[in-house]
Each structure stands twice: as C-alpha cells, then as structure tokens.
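Subject: sequence -> structure tokens, single chain

Hey, anyone have a minute? Need the predicted structure for the following. Not urgent.
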Amino acid sequence: ICLAHNGNLTNARQLADVLMREDRRHLNTSSDSEVLLNVLASELQRFGTTSASAADIFAAISATFRRIQGGYAVVAMILGHGVIGFRDPHGIRPLVIGKRDTPRGREHMIASESVALDQSGFELLRDVGPGEAVYIDETGRLHTRQCAEAIFIDMQGRMHAAQCAPAGKHTPCIFEYVYFARPDSIIDNISVYKARLRMGELLADKIRRTRPQHDIDVVIPIPDTSRTSAMQVAQILGVKYREGFIKNRYIGRTFIMPEQGQRKKSVRNKLNAIDLEFRGKNVLLVDDSIVRGTTSAQIIEIAREAGANKVYFASAAPPVRYPNVYGIDMP
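Reply:
Had a minute. Here:
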C-alpha cells in the first residue's frame, strides 16, 4: 500500500499502542500517517485482500473510519487492486474527484484541489463527500460509498453506531480558503478566489464603518495569499493598491516552522520592502490572517524602516477563536 495523507489524527498515540500491542504491527516513526497506513492495512487484511471486491474494500475503509479520529483526506494505491480515497466524516480537509475521457475509456483522478486536476488535463467531477470513500479499480471503474458511521446518542447517553449512515455535519476548514488553497481552486463548490474577494469586501466594510474618516493613502498586500482580498479593500475604500513587498520564493511557510526564533528570522529573509511605496505614506497592510502575530510584528517593523508615516495592519480572515488540532500548527 502506498498512502498519502493530509490532516491530523487526534487519537494517533492511542492507536499506535493498540497497533503494536494487539495488531502486532511495528511502527518506525511517530507520524500519524504511518499509524493511519497500518490501521488501513490491518483492516484490509482482516477483510481479505487477495480476492477483495469493492464491497470488501469499502468494508475495510468503514472499519478504518471506526478506529481513527480527526481531520483527514487520504489517497492510497493498493497493489493489485487500484486506488482508494476517503475524507473524514466532517469534511474538514478537502478531496476532489476528476475525470477525463480517453480513447481507452474514462479515467479518474483524486486530489486535494481542483487545480491539480486542471493541470493534469482532468475535469472536476465533484468533491468527495464527508465520510465518503471512492475506489478506482484496475479497470478504471469508479465505485463510491458513504462509509463513515453516524453516531447517535440516546436519552440515557448511550452511543449507537450505524455503519454507512450519512456522515456528520459538514464543517470544512476555513483556512483552506484563507491561506492554504490556490485561488484558482474550487473546494466544496466554492471558488477560493471569490471567497477571498468576499473577505476583502467585509474587511473594507468594517474599516468604513469603524473609521469613516480614515487617512489611508495606500493598501499593500502581504504576498501572496492576501492579494485578492487587498485589491478588493483598496477598490472599495477608493485608495491606491500597490505591491510594496517582494517575496523570496525559496523560503517556506513561516507560521508552521517549529521555533519562534526560526520564524522571526525567516520573515526577514522572506520579504523585502520597496521603499518608495512606503516613504511618507499612511499604509494599510493587509494579510490573509494572523495566527501567532510573529510575522505581523516583523512586517510592521519592515514597513516602518522603509519610511512609512503610519502603518495600519488588518487581517482578511475571520477571528481565530479556538485551537486547531486537525492539521495546522495553530495554538
């Protein structure tokens, strides 16, 4: 089995203990992806993979759903059978199916974003539903089934599970739209680009409402993700939009770096200011979000050093209210 996983298993540690103690499986790393791989392998083995039908594959995935908790989108290739994909019961992480017609017949593709389908010559068929599994067999035929359990709690507080019942409430991660996804992607039938435009509209409305006599001269985005929102803010406020920061393409995502010192140093290496866009001006900096505030403080400092008269800083995202444990290092 070759498996790729986007997300976090919140019960990975407990599962690792069970896998080693009861399933007699050896784990080489502390990665929850390895835990997930072994749970899936264990269930496929239990349902017999030598002559497994689509029903057996889905039964194994249903059993995997019963054991794992968290937010996850998974795609796996099973030798001699085909490709499977499944998404957590709340649809927290994105997963899409694509199709293309060839002289040999229809082909299917599973990916996190529709843009991956576009670039590979596939057409977006639909999103994989929360708690749904898809199976592309060796002949290229697509099989789908709702495999997550719905958990019902009775009046006495007892839990009851119904296999292959409709999944729970769909609660996708908004950070896909705020930051992670490419603007040309469509996730759960929502254009990421349009979502970011709307965030810019709401931010501009809030600025006009709270500071109707604002003294902003120019709106500058923090590249790259906030550009769409920042352009909309500038247009609605009726002020100039300018690119004031140049981004170093060889520095990774700073907010997911493990150490504070590393994050601070990386911001300096990542962004460089064009002084003439800042000197003597009242600048509104628009970022896609504020996670820790480390990069925000550093960016404001860079803008002041570039000669800005006043620096305003705004986030296009709704407030982050709670910790995120489903695949983003967000306290």
